[in-house]
Amino acid sequence: MDAYKKAGVDIEAGYKLVDEIKSLSKNNALGSFGGLFPLALGKYKNPVLVSGTDGVGTKLLIATQSGIHNTIGIDLVAMCVNDILAQGAKPLFFLDYLGIGHLDQAQAKEILTGVVAGVDQADAKLVGGETAEMPDMYDHGHYDMAGFAVGIADADDLLKPESLKKGDVLLGLASNGLHSNGFSLVRDILFKQNDYQLSDRLPGCELDIAHELLRPTKIYVKSVLPLVEQKLIQGIAHITGGGLIENVARILPAGLSAEFHLNSWQIPAVMTDLQSIGHLSLADMENTFNLGLGMVLAVRQEDAAKVKSALENAGETVYQVGQLIAGDKKVIIRED
């Protein structure tokens, strides 16, 4: 073990970290060779498991450079469980992977505190994970993360493009800023094209750049899933990589397009600041950022007011942003 430690891998630190995670997650089964989850299928007639995996991307570099690590785990969970929710499924459990150059106990605990918080926000369970200390793979202080989640739904209740119809109302759920997408462009604009520091503040933002960029991705499970289960939602687009255009297009069936009215919701100041500083076109913005909408829900006209009210009562900021129209699977954002 001493030889391994001299090579840069501290096994004892890894053991201590597992004990920390057990305490944080209140799951004493962590540390086994496989994660266990009791699967109750009583209410499902034709159960389907829905899985999702993702990472956080170059947002991790902002966490590394700023030394702020306690929210990046929420991003990791959110990227997986929001995708599962978009299928109409309930997230059940989550596993994480942390690859790190040197296992600093305090840093790793901070990272995984975020993972535990995210799992709790998703009403799921952390059943396992892996921490790999690889000093020759990552520079000191640097790390990478990946996550894997599994959810469940009845096959008949999965959200399908065929359920959508002309006239359905589009409701947008406010994002918590940039979430976890577009950070290569963000970093290029702020730190390569310009000489901003993480301690600086952008003109329209209340927080400094580090804290503004590290706002965690919002997890929508607890507010949206009850409405899915009540069959009040016909389709969900999780607005991630590719921005508003690409992700809404993914849920459209043949014969329908989505029409948005840009003045019907609030675009976060961080995005308008980036647009101005980086001289970005509206097309650049639409295809990169969520534009302030973390999720877009398609609902029947007669259900729109009820759904909007329920979401607001659950703490969401909700905008009626558009509707489905006849078309060829296009996403149209009108500036009028």
General description of the model:
This protein is an alpha+beta fold and 336 residues long. The chain has two domains: 2-32 and 43-157, PurM-like, N-terminal domain (60s Ribosomal Protein L30, Chain: A), CATH 3.30.1330; 161-334, PurM-like C-terminal domain (Phosphoribosyl-aminoimidazole Synthetase, Chain A, domain 2, Alpha-Beta Complex). It is 35% helix and 23% strand. It has twelve helices and ten strands. Strands 6-8-5-9-7-10 form a six-stranded mixed beta sheet, sandwiched between helices. It starts with a helix and ends with a strand. The relative contact order is 0.16. The model has no long low-confidence stretch (mean pLDDT 92). Belongs to the AIR synthase family.
Tag the structure with descriptive keywords.
336 residues, alpha+beta, 60s Ribosomal Protein L30, Chain: A, Phosphoribosyl-aminoimidazole Synthetase, Chain A, domain 2, 2 domains, 6-stranded mixed β-sheet, 4-stranded mixed β-sheet, 12 helices, 35% helix, globular
